[in-house]
Every structure is written in structure tokens, then in C-alpha cells.
Amino acid sequence: MDLAGTPRFRYALLLREIDDMWTAEDFRSVGLVLIRLAGLEAVNANFGYIGGDRALEEFEQRLLAVARQRDRVFRVGSTSFALLIHNPTNEGHAVLGAERISREAREPVLLGARRARLQAHMGVSLLPELAGGTEELLRHCELALDESRDRDEPYIVYSDGLAAGSAGHARADFDIHEALDKAELEMYFQPKVHLGSRELAGAEALIRWNSPRDGVQLPEAFLPGVERGWAIHALFGFSLNAALRQACDWCQKVPEFVMAVNMSPGNLEDPYLIDTVTDALGVWNLDADRLVLEITETALMRDPRASAAKLQALHELGVRIAIDDFGTGHASLAYLRDLPADELKIDRSFITQMLTSDRDRRIVASIIQLAHAVNMQVVAEGIEDGDAAQVLQDMGCEIGQGYFFNRPLSAGNFATAWLREREAAEAGADA
């Protein structure tokens, strides 16, 4: 094994270089910019791995051009770099370096006659202004880098608030690992209803954590701590299989029933995502078109090309794709037109204000027209009364979801509220 090529060895070299700068006679400060590139998967798909390597080499050369004479550039991972700034005069000096790097990353890389694009996220910190030692400096940058990715900002400068947030995330992440082992996770199901007939169209599967300490927890209480890595992939695998197990039963009672499962941005980065979905459909012997995978518009726009490529692979399996929370991100019309998606879910913030705000009502009407123009079905979430449901139906919206129809229900309560009632009605009709 070539230890010199491992990230651990490269990080060790980086830490040693920071130590050398810190102990130098002319030491005043050290700035560190930790950089992670996004978009390489799409470059590899479009140009091959040789093209991907060339794009990374080009970025490294641009990074070297940003560095001053005594600054240092390190390759610390397959898509990660570090710029070590010698004696920055202040925080603004390090921020200026991050801005230059961001600008260089946005410039397309020429691969033959075609262009490839990457995106950089960065975490910035300084020693001794913000950190008390070399390892703390690196940890600060890692926290800021994660925040940069979460906010989809080019760079974030470390602050004490990030450390506080990290403590909460670490606790949640640890508890979720334990929850998976102790079967503390449960799926709830919120009905999706045909607005015209008010009959059941399907359900959205929503995960809940039965915390021994805090009781039933909504996703926003624990998912931010498991945004990436093993935990988020394990949670998706659990959610997918638990949802499909129910769908396998419910599709026999409602032949048109479709089950929706949420994906996180981290799931799109999972190289085994397609295998996970294929295996789950096979285990539960369910047709692919009975599964809808929902991904938010904001998550898609983190790396549009890579996202589109992964969704295309899922679409080719026959799985339906839904763009969730539409209207809150920055998807362009051209991107929406070319995206392999079947459903557009209008964000609830527009639905709840639609009856009192002419502006929101016009936005909702425009989104419905836009979706139909690109052959997408429209789902409105957050419907809380019959008036909103009727207005949406009149606008041409096909599917509704919200407390007006039902809150998220356990599997048993969902069957009681929706499926047994339907079975009784069908039995009466046959009598």
C-alpha cells in the first residue's frame, strides 16, 4: 500500500507544514483554506476518468497560481485541496484567497472542444486568531467546509457558532446509529389524494425516531446530523425498504397506489444508490413505477449536472422522480425541461398563503402551467382546508397532500383511515 498517496498521510504532511509555519521565527499567523470540489462525477460521466483527472490537474494549477511565494498548496483527497497562507495580515486576507479560488473554480475547464465545470466549497480559519493549535485549525476548517456545503455558499469562515452546532450534530449522529441498531425508527405515511375524485393516490413515507429520551422526533430534529456518509445511506436504505414493504401490501388493495420516499443530497452522492433501489424493488417484488423518489429543488442545484445524471439512471429503472419544495430554489427553465422528472411538488409556503395573497396565487398557477408544459404531474403539499383544495383543482393541480386530508399516520392507522374504508365501499358495491 502506498501510504504517501493516502489522505491520512497527506493530512499529516499538511499538519506538519502548519507546525513549521507556526514555529518559524517570522511567524505572525497562519491561514488555512480547506477546499472540496463538487461536480467531478458528472465530468467523469461526460468525459471519462481521464477527463476528470485533467480537470483536477487544471484546478490544482489554478490554485498554485493563487498562492503567493511562501504559501503552500496540498492535495489532501481525491477531490480535496488545501491552501496554507503564510502570515495573512487579517481574516480578510484569507477570505480574499477563498474568493479567488471560488472564481477560478467557476471558470470552465477546456477538455478538447468541450467545457467541463466544477464547483468549490471551502472552510476558512486562522491561527492563532480563531484556533489555538494546528489540529484545532484543521477541525475548524472542516466544520466550516461542511457548513459551506449545507448552505451551498462558496466559503464559510469559522465561528464559535459552528462548534456549538457540531456538538449537537455529533450527538444526533451517534443516537441515530444506536437507533438503527435498536429498531427505534418508524415510518409514518401521509396520504396523497386525487383532487378531482378525492380518492387515494398514494402516500409519502416520512421517517420518525422514537427516542428513548425525547419521545417521537421529527426529521428536522435528527437528520441535520446525518447529512452525509454511512448514516444517511443507512437511513435511506431503512426508509426505502420499510416503505416498499407497506407498498407491496397496499398496492394489492389500491392498484394505482404509488409510494413516495425522500432522498437527501447525500444520497445522490452514494455510488451504490442505483443498486440499493434495484435490490429493494426486487426484494419486495414491486414494479418500479410504484415508487416515487423525492429530492428537493435546492438539493438538485448543488451540483445540477451530477444530480441530473444520477436521476437519469434512476428514471431508466422505471422509478418516478419528483422535485420537492419547488419554488424555493433556483432551477432554471432549461434545467427543468431537461430533467428526467415526473412530478413537481409545490412548496407549502405558497399554498398556505394562496387564498390571501394574489401574488402567491399567481405563482402557484404559473408553476402548474410550467409543470404541465414539460409533461409533469403537479402535487400541492400543505393543503389545510377545502377552499385551497378546490382552488388548486380549478387550476389543474392533480394531487393534493396536507392536514385537510390527514396528518402523517402510522402504518396501522393509515390502513384504518384509508384502505379499510375503501375495501368496505368496494364490498358494498359488489353486494
Coarse structural class: alpha/beta
Number of strands: 17
| Number of self-contained structural domains | 2
Pick out the low-confidence regions: 167-174
Largest sheet: 8 strands, mixed, barrel
CATH first level of the largest domain? Alpha Beta
Q: Identify the strand order in the major beta sheet.
A: 8-9-11-12-13-14-15-16
CATH superfamily of the largest domain: EAL domain
Radius of gyration: 25 Å
- CATH architecture classification of the largest domain: Alpha-Beta Barrel
Mean pLDDT across the residues is: 83
Description:
The longest helix is centred in the first third of the chain and has 27 residues, at 40-66. By secondary structure, this protein is α/β, with parallel strands linked by helices. It has helices spanning 7-23, 40-66, 91-106, 134-151, 160-181, 219-222, 230-253, 265-268, 273-283, 297-300, 304-316, 333-338, 348-353, 358-373, 386-395, 411-430, and strands spanning 30-38, 72-75, 80-86, 109-111, 114-116, 119-127, 155-157, 185-194, 200-211, 215-217, 258-262, 291-296, 320-326, 343-346, 377-381, 399-401, 409-410. It has an eight-stranded mixed β-barrel with strand order 8-9-11-12-13-14-15-16, surrounded by six helices. A five-stranded mixed β-sheet has the order 2-3-1-6-7, with helices on both faces. It folds into two domains: 3-158, Alpha-Beta Plaits (2-Layer Sandwich), CATH 3.30.70; 175-430, TIM Barrel. The model is unreliable at 167-174 (pLDDT under 50). It is built from 16 helices and 17 strands. Strand 4 and strand 5 (114-116) form a beta hairpin.
